[in-house]
Amino acid sequence: MAATTTVPGVPRSRARTAAGGRERALWREWARSLDRPLTSYYLILSTGVMLIALGLVMVLSSTMVNSITETGSAFSVFQRQLVSAVIGLPLMVIASQTPLWVFRMVGYPAMILSVALLLLTAFQGTEVNGAIRWLEIGGLRIQPSEPAKIAFALWGANILARKEELKELTEWRHLLIPLLPGCGLLVLLVLLGSDLSTTLVLLLVFLGLLWVAGAPGRLFVAMFGLVLGLAAIVIAIEPFRMARITAFLDPGADPSGSGFQSLHGLYALGTGGIFGVGIGASREKWGFLPFAESDFIFAIIGEEFGLIGTLLVLGLFGMLGYAGLRVAFRVKDPFSRLAAFAIVTWIIGQSMINIAAVIGLVPVTGIPLPLVSYGGSALIPTMIALGVLLAIARSEPQAQKALAARGPSWAQRALSWLGLENIVASVRNRSGSTASKRTTTPRAPRKSENRGAKAGVKTTAKNKSGPVPAGDRPRRNRRR
């Protein structure tokens, strides 16, 4: 009997041990998957594509009612967003296969073009909802402040990277000039169109670049205080912005006026509950929630997909931010590190401002949710920025080895087929040689090894460090 008696706790402890072992094995397998060479690349690609797909679905759902009322078709607004995504997808793929030196060269022309378009918008722009943000060119309406974000990110990263290569970032004036005047010019032109939300994003990218470049704490705090002071002044001089601050503090004080949009955004989130009312079943999109397809699309997501849907969106943006920061920390090139951090700061910072405005944590700013909200002027530049981030992810040291083992990419094969591979290589070598000339420090003159022999000193077989190697010994005269 004693031999067959079993202790009740023994099987349970063994089961717990086995379960713990399986959990540890799964955790190790997941950790190994993150250490693969192209993990960052696939994380950025997958999260970006899922956010774009979710945005297309939500734009269709949130605009069906208004589209039928205005045009008689439920797909009129969705078709425009779909066309923008179709245009942006090949641009994103091309950007992901482009060498990084091209983006360094593009920074200055893109910045100049953005300033020119913003100047033209300030004087010849179209006013929509009290703001002059749009410019009509050949029957096409664009918002120049959106491509200005990626232009400033690439230009600022190139400026600071060049100064870092030249060892000039030890003084505060090299950190701020010309980065601060360039940012100030863009901010001034954007503010002329009463676009405070884009101004905040540009200033956020500016602060992010300073942080990565290693700005001293005092300088960073001073610039942060300058940004807050500028925002306070801009808010105080515009009556409608003060109304938004009042509505943020007490939305119920004016439920049919300044607090209308904030209240109905909260109504949409509250109606959705945990699992939502179902896709397409939103009630707030029936003319109750203004700008449901753009500024408050997160509220429609919460209403139709519930808390689960909002957490999914937060998780996708969080994964995108993690992958982007992972790339920024792994690359060794200063431009790649700065550009990756600037793009991540732009996309994640803008998404957090939009979500915080919808749930009532900050005043309503009128800023879209990146990759999800309606608007081709915002979607296409953001997709190009994702392509730049993918190209930087491909430049990680381990990723380069993995890609080299696969052979030439389709872009290299296309250049070879067109006969442009040698031209591109020569331009890249020229840019690389220019950079090497700037960063190379003069070497000390080499000491002559045979100075003793020239002076008539007899060479011995030994020196201070020991016997001379056989390969370095003077060849003997074989003549007898």
Describe the structure.
Residues 1-7, 431-465 and 468-480 have low confidence and may be disordered. The protein contains 18 helices and 5 strands. Helix 2 packs antiparallel against helix 12, helix 4 crosses helix 5 and helix 5 packs antiparallel against helix 7. The longest helix has 34 residues, at 297-330. The chain has helices spanning 9-34, 39-71, 76-96, 100-124, 145-165, 172-176, 179-192, 196-212, 217-237, 239-249, 260-272, 297-330, 334-358, 376-394, 397-406, 410-418, 421-439, 451-454, and strands at 126-128, 131-137, 140-142, 462-463, 466-467. The chain is mostly helical. A 3-stranded antiparallel β-sheet has the order 1-2-3, with helices on one face. The protein has a two-stranded antiparallel ribbon with strand order 4-5.
Jot down its keywords.
disordered C terminus, globular, disordered N terminus, single chain, mainly alpha, three-stranded antiparallel sheet, 480 residues
The N- to C-terminal Cα distance equals 102 Å
Q: What structural category characterises the helix and strand content?
A: mainly alpha
Shape: globular
Calculate the mean pLDDT score and round it.
83
Write the layout of secondary structure elements.
Elements: H1 9-34, H2 39-71, H3 76-96, H4 100-124, E1 126-128, E2 131-137, E3 140-142, H5 145-165, H6 172-176, H7 179-192, H8 196-212, H9 217-237, H10 239-249, H11 260-272, H12 297-330, H13 334-358, H14 376-394, H15 397-406, H16 410-418, H17 421-439, H18 451-454, E4 462-463, E5 466-467
Antiparallel strand pairs: 1-2, 2-3, 4-5
Helix pairs in contact: 2-3, 2-12, 2-14, 3-14, 4-5, 4-7, 5-7, 5-8, 5-13, 5-14, 7-8, 8-9, 8-13, 9-10, 11-12, 12-13, 13-14
